[in-house]
């Protein structure tokens, strides 16, 4: 009887908290639990948790750029050349700024920036959910984002949190008619990652649609012009540095094996994976990408706002049509949080009528997220 009465009391206390606090608290709890599981696995396998979070794979490149600037190139063969020019400058620039102000290492600064950016992103995702739907759906949208199979990356020294923070608030600005904010944040998103151009694409598409419908304005035009400047500026800077203004950056990406080939390389790898077998990470990636396609179809069926459809659609197109590290495709989808809206709405309805059913679903997702995240970072030993 005591337990039965405790649930309404707890629910009532939570309801009295500011809505964003509940959402950010749920997100922080999810990510802290994920780190705890990773730490337990790392301890069991004789590894250092802080090193796994702050110095794994791409994190080492970002730390080096922050400390020494651009100029590092590794040659692995005649057709495989890894240059640090493939990495956009916003995140290493923020790391450099933090190490200049605070007495911390590059790894610690990278984690600090990533964690703060993840919190800002979660707040922006909540703001979009609350604007379009209600507090419950918005909170679950944030929680689902924090419980994705690859959400361990949100706790690492990677750029996805920075991109998602810029994207979420740019999209919120679009949805609320703040054109210049949308354009400026899209420009920052374009400086964070190659697929950050998806934010600019959303701004341009929405501005063009508003103009066609006769609802355009000078601010909408300025936002459309401003949005791609960050991405274009870095691509042109790399091109000038490589002696090929328009093709230099894409040559750098080609050295990493990353190019847009309409998905031919991904189809060949999928055939190899299905016929010859591969490590667990690869079929898991295939399932995640397939699920993303289904979720995008549901987002279209739900008649989501054009800004969210354009942004998610471009991110999904880049993942489907790009070659390179197949196992990284799931990570590239982390910023595509609008794909989770159909799930959040369905889960919100379930939570209202059958709360224990919703609890079981969230618990299952948490188990998958924490277990798979620890496996990815501490066991699989494969590029993220």
From TrEMBL:
InterPro entries referenced in this protein's UniProt entry, alphabetically: PIG-V/Gpi18, RgtA/B/C-like
Positions of the Glycosyltransferase RgtA/B/C/D-like domain:
89-213
Q: How does it sit in the membrane?
A: Multi-pass membrane protein
Give the pathway listed in the UniProt entry for this protein.
Glycolipid biosynthesis; glycosylphosphatidylinositol-anchor biosynthesis
Which keywords does UniProt give here?
Endoplasmic reticulum, Glycosyltransferase, GPI-anchor biosynthesis, Membrane, Transferase, Transmembrane, Transmembrane helix
Chain coiled-coil ranges: none
Q: Which residues cross the membrane?
A: 21-42, 112-133, 140-159, 179-209, 221-239, 280-299, 306-326, 332-348, 360-382
The record's subcellular locations are: Endoplasmic reticulum membrane
Q: What protein does this entry describe?
A: Glycosyltransferase family 39 protein
Source organism per UniProt: Streptomyces polyasparticus
């Amino acid at each position: 009887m005591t337990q039965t009465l405790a649930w309404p009391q707890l629910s009532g206390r939570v309801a009295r908290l500011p809505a964003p606090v509940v959402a950010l608290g749920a997100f922080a709890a999810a990510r802290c639990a994920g780190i705890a599981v990773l730490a337990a696995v790392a301890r069991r396998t004789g590894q250092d948790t802080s090193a796994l979070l702050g110095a794994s794979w791409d994190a080492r490149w970002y730390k080096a750029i922050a400390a020494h600037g651009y100029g590092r190139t590794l040659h692995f063969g005649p057709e495989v050349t890894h240059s640090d020019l493939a990495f956009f400058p916003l995140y290493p620039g923020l790391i450099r700024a933090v190490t200049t102000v605070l007495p911390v290492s590059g790894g610690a600064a990278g984690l600090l920036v990533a964690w703060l950016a993840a919190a800002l992103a979660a707040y922006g995702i909540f703001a979009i959910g609350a604007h379009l739907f209600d507090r419950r759906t918005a909170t679950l949208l944030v929680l689902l984002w924090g419980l994705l199979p690859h959400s361990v990356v949100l706790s690492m020294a990677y750029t996805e949190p920075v991109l998602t923070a810029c994207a979420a608030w740019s999209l919120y600005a679009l949805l609320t008619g703040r054109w210049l904010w949308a354009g400026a944040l899209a420009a920052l998103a374009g400086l964070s990652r190659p697929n950050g151009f998806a934010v600019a694409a959303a701004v341009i598409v929405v501005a063009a649609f508003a103009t066609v419908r006769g609802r355009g304005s000078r601010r909408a035009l300025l936002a459309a012009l401003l949005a791609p400047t960050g991405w274009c500026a870095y691509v042109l800077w790399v091109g000038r540095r490589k002696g090929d203004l328009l093709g230099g950056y894409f040559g750098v990406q080609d050295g990493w094996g990353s190019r847009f080939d309409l998905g031919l390389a991904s189809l060949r790898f999928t055939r190899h994976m299905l016929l010859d077998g591969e490590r667990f990470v690869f079929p898991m990636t295939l399932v995640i990408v397939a699920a993303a396609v289904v979720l995008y179809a549901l987002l279209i069926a739900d008649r989501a706002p054009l800004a969210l459809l354009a942004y998610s659609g471009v991110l999904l197109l880049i993942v489907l049509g790009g070659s390179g590290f197949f196992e990284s495709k799931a990570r590239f989808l982390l910023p595509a949080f609008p794909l989770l809206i159909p799930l959040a709405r369905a889960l919100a309805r379930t939570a209202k009528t059958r709360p224990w059913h919703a609890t079981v679903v969230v618990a299952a997702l948490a188990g998958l997220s924490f277990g798979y995240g620890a496996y990815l970072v501490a066991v699989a030993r494969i590029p993220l």
